[in-house]
Specification:
By secondary structure, the chain is α+β, with helices and mostly antiparallel strands. It has seven helices and 13 strands. It has one domain. The radius of gyration is 20 Å and the shape is globular. It starts with 13 loop residues before the first helix and ends in a 16-residue tail after the last helix.
């Protein structure tokens, strides 16, 4: 983090350098936008075809076919979840939180898309409904559903706490993917990646730029809903931090289950869905 008391004195033109206006790195106007009206109309005809209850301090995976919807809901108490996405046909194509952050911002909501890793770099899912969109950004700079946190994990826990904790979101997702795809723990762990922190309220401190968390505003009945752009495996961990008001990777925090539901708009609608094409870049990397 940047020092509060710098070691070097500012130059004479320091204020001029600092007062230069910022430029948005990636213009959102050039992104292909989802047709939310069409998707919301499809959603009205969709019927529930499956559900998954994710137990506290554990994770689960489910298949979500392209052209269907899936919803993550709070059902018993304030609880955040760490979500991974993989292509059903190729686990190496997975959710790319860093590029999603660069394209849409630190926190995502309705109309934003979750993008996949290189070389495919295509939409994996589109957010179609978010009952917490009213939250916006608070006075601390905090907001909900971030793509900045990496997931709680046993390696960082061991570094900071000097003991082993096995129910971090990273470990939960590793166990869940191994079970769902009949993989060894070692192979599954290679595919677990940076997450969408569903319902988590986070931001960066103004003075040091440190990642912070605070009590999630989620309550039973709140949900985040997505439209699957490609055939997906969705993994979700019910974080051991509960609502993350105090700490994560804890057996003391109050934790609750999360509900995942899949909704199918019908065979005809799925057949009409166009799978997102992989990136059109030729991958020559300047060698032609």
């Amino acid at each position: 983090m940047k020092p509060l008391n710098p070691h070097f004195s500012p130059p004479a033109d320091a204020q001029d350098r600092k007062s230069i206006s910022p430029v948005i790195c990636y213009s959102p106007e050039t992104l292909p936008n989802p047709n939310l009206g069409v998707l919301q109309a499809l959603r009205t005809q969709a019927e529930k075809t499956g559900e998954l209850i994710v137990a506290p301090r554990d994770a689960g995976c489910c298949d979500v076919p392209a052209g269907t919807f899936f919803r993550i809901s709070s059902i018993e108490g304030a609880q955040v979840g760490d979500m991974n996405l993989w292509s059903k046909s190729d686990l190496t194509e997975r959710f790319y939180s860093g590029k999603t952050r660069a394209l849409h911002g630190t926190h995502v909501s309705t109309g934003d898309r979750l993008w996949s890793t290189f070389p495919n770099m295509r939409p994996m899912a589109t957010i179609t409904a978010d009952t917490l969109d009213w939250y916006g950004f608070d006075e601390f700079g905090g907001s909900v559903h971030d793509v900045i946190g990496t997931r709680c994990d046993p390696y960082t826990h061991h570094l900071l706490q000097h003991d082993d904790y096995h129910y971090c979101c990273h470990s939960n997702l590793t166990r869940a993917l191994a079970k769902h795809c009949d993989l060894s723990l070692d192979e599954a762990e290679r595919h677990v990646h940076d997450v969408l922190n569903v319902f988590m309220c986070t931001g960066f401190t103004r003075d040091t730029g440190q990642y912070f968390m605070k009590a999630s505003p989620v309550r039973p009945g709140d949900y985040l809903e997505f439209y699957a752009e490609i055939d997906l495996i969705m993994g979700l961990s019910a974080c051991p931090g509960g609502d993350c008001s105090q700490e994560h990777s804890s057996d003391a925090a109050a934790c609750y289950p999360l509900l995942v539901e899949v909704f199918d708009p019908g065979e005809e609608a799925r057949a009409a869905h166009r799978i997102s094409a992989p990136s059109g870049y030729d991958r020559s990397h300047g060698t032609k």
